[in-house]
């Protein structure tokens, strides 16, 4: 697939966000057990992140102060547990780079020089500025394009499942909504 077709497949009909985030690509095979564990971990992380971020803007009268406070505490505990787990596993920090992503896939520039279309691997991205936790999503390389700084990759999410897909769509929608609000404030 050429880059233009890959771009249309990933972003043509989907809500896409363009931002600068710590992100990277790790090529390699994905064992079924690893894939299932990462899907569950990613879905729980995105749901907890959504609950914490959404609760910051909600009115207490909507859910009652006790119910909302309890949800916030549970979400923060989930995020703390996730963060401690990632610290125990260790993590190589990815550089901040331009990332365009939708619920279907992502496009980013990497320093690698040899990644073939059709290769499988993981997209690593830190989805939140305030929490240094990395989200790992299974991907397949749709297209590549060499340029002076390395390689641009078009990555399609592979086998996310309905729960993780919905959580990812919700996260990207929140990011898009936040971007629009910031533009309006600056005008």
Morphology: globular
Termini separation comes to 40 Å
Q: What is the percentage of strand-forming residues?
A: 25-35%
Q: How many H/I helices?
A: 5
The number of domains:
1
Task: Determine the mean pLDDT.
Answer: 85
Largest sheet: 6 strands, antiparallel, barrel
The strand order across the widest sheet is 1-2-3-6-5-4
| Weakly predicted, low-confidence segments | none
> What is the highest CATH level, the class?
Mainly Beta
Alpha-carbon Rg, integer: 17 Å
**CATH-derived topology:** Thrombin, subunit H
Order of helices and strands: HEHHHEEEEEH
Under the CATH scheme, which architecture would be assigned?
Beta Barrel
Helix proportion:
40-55%
What features would you highlight for this structure?
5 helices, 187 residues, globular, six-stranded antiparallel barrel, 6 strands, 27% strand, Thrombin, subunit H, alpha+beta
Write the layout of secondary structure elements.
Layout: H1 3-11, E1 17-27, H2 32-57, H3 60-63, H4 65-89, E2 96-101, E3 105-110, E4 120-125, E5 135-147, E6 150-157, H5 162-186
Antiparallel strand pairs: 1-2, 1-4, 2-3, 3-6, 4-5, 5-6
Helix pairs in contact: 2-4, 2-5
């Amino acid at each position: 697939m050429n880059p233009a077709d890959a771009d249309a497949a990933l972003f043509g009909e989907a809500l896409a966000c363009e931002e600068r985030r710590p992100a990277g690509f790790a090529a390699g095979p994905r064992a079924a057990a690893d894939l299932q564990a990462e899907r569950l971990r990613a879905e729980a992380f995105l749901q907890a992140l959504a609950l914490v971020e959404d609760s910051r803007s909600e009115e207490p009268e909507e859910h009652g102060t006790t119910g909302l406070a309890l949800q916030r505490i549970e979400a923060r505990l989930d995020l703390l547990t996730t963060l401690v787990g990632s610290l125990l596993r260790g993590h190589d920090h990815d550089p901040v780079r331009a990332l365009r992503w939708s619920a279907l896939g992502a496009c980013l520039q990497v320093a690698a020089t040899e990644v073939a279309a059709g290769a499988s691997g993981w997209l690593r991205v830190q989805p939140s500025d305030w929490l240094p936790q990395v989200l790992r999503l299974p991907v397949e390389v749709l297209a590549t394009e060499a340029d002076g700084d390395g390689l641009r990759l078009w990555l399609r999410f592979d086998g996310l499942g309905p729960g993780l897909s919905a959580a990812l769509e919700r996260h990207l929608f929140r990011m898009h909504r936040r971007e629009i609000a910031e533009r309006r404030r600056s005008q």
